[in-house]
Automatic annotation (TrEMBL):
This is Dihydroorotate dehydrogenase (quinone). It catalyses: (S)-dihydroorotate + a quinone = orotate + a quinol. FMN binds at A66, G67, F68, D69, K70, T90, N143, N176, K217, T245, G271, G300, Y321, T322. It is found in: Cell membrane; Membrane. It comes from Taibaiella lutea. The gene is pyrD. Substrate binds at K70, N115, R116, M117, G118, F119, N176, N181, N246, T247.
């Protein structure tokens, strides 16, 4: 059924389709009967799927990655599709439009996407207010970033604003310094600025008293030396883990026509092409840290076998995004039943 629906949806602009589908989901989920049908068809309830991490109990290990519900507009509706947790954002202190459109492209031959969204969002205050009024109790992660116009030397201030605004309405934080679509953002992954940023957030975390888990989202394109630095930084700042990984800037291995890919322009590649890279990063961090660093896996997860590969490599939880678009709303149930 979804294959037929996807056939028609994939003929339209990806960003337009995204918001149309999500608004339809919101509309139909308002009907209690439809909401019950969705839950029956897409949610899996099984105590064996539960995962306990950072003092939180995840009803299953399959989450929705950041970028899908940037502004926390659809958390209740997405919760009805069976996700174990949802990561909203990336959010910035001030609303921004992001990069010029078109900025999201499908590569069906590669089961991939290219995006250069550029942290488009309505600002952290508006998202925090929506989360205060949500109805579901699903675990929410807050993915935070800096505004495009903020220079890197002032970036810590942007992350601090987002951290404070979301503190009472999310269950954990993800610090995003790895998107390739905000100029110079990935420079913040270097050891000195990253230690400064995470150290400051940990100070605020202690001051606010509840000590929310802080995770770092990293790129799949880091060298082994840079990954060693990440491990050192996690241990030094005592943050609670990493999300591995973001999109890749590499175009290696794509089967889509090179001219077609070049015409799409800059952006990060997600989906199947990043699968192996993400798994390698997860395995390296897990082995090098002797399993002391909790990892949320993202990148190329479409099936239960994909999820198991990430878990076997050392991840504690997984997130889907591109797989959700290609596989449809049954992806969580299919992965959970497979696991």
């Amino acid at each position: 059924m979804y294959s037929l629906i996807k056939f028609f949806l994939f003929k339209k602009d990806p960003e337009v389709v995204h918001y149309w589908v999500m608004n339809q989901l919101k509309k139909w989920s308002a009907n209690p009967i439809v909401k019950s049908i969705l839950k029956k068809n897409f949610a899996v309830e099984n105590p064996q799927l539960e995962r306990k991490l950072w003092g939180l109990t995840f009803k299953n290990p399959v989450g929705l990655a950041a970028g899908f519900d940037k502004d926390a507009k659809f958390t209740d509706e997405l919760a009805g599709l069976g996700f174990g947790f949802i990561e909203i954002g990336t959010l910035t202190p001030v609303a921004q439009d992001g990069n010029d459109k078109p900025r999201l492209f499908r590569l069906p031959k590669d089961k991939a996407l290219i995006n250069r969204m550029g942290f488009n969002n309505g600002g952290v205050k508006a998202a925090a207010e929506r989360l205060r009024h949500r109805k579901s109790d699903i675990i929410i992660g807050g993915n935070i970033g800096k505004n495009k116009i903020t220079e890197n030397e002032n970036a810590t201030g942007d992350y601090e604003i987002c951290f404070r605004e979301l503190y009472d309405v999310v269950d954990y934080f993800t610090v995003n310094v790895s998107s390739p679509n905000t100029p110079n953002l990935r420079a913040l992954q270097e050891k000195e600025p990253l230690e400064k940023l995470l150290g400051r957030l940990q100070i605020i975390n202690s001051e606010l008293g509840k000590s929310k888990p802080i995770l770092l989202k990293i790129a799949p394109d880091l060298t082994l030396e840079q990954l060693d630095d990440i491990i050192d930084i996690v241990n030094t700042t005592k943050i609670q883990g990493v999300v591995a990984t973001n999109t890749t800037i590499s175009r290696a291995g794509l089967t889509t026509n090179h001219a077609e890919v070049d015409a799409m322009g800059a952006g990060g590649v997600s989906g199947l092409p990043v699968k192996e890279k993400a798994t390698d990063v997860i395995r390296y961090i897990h082995q090098k840290s002797k399993g002391t660093i909790p990892i949320i896996a993202a990148g190329g997860i479409f099936t239960a076998a994909d999820a198991k590969e990430k878990l076997d490599a050392g991840a504690s939880l997984v997130q889907v995004y591109t797989g959700f678009i290609y596989e449809g709303p049954r992806i969580v149930k299919n992965i959970c039943e497979g696991l």
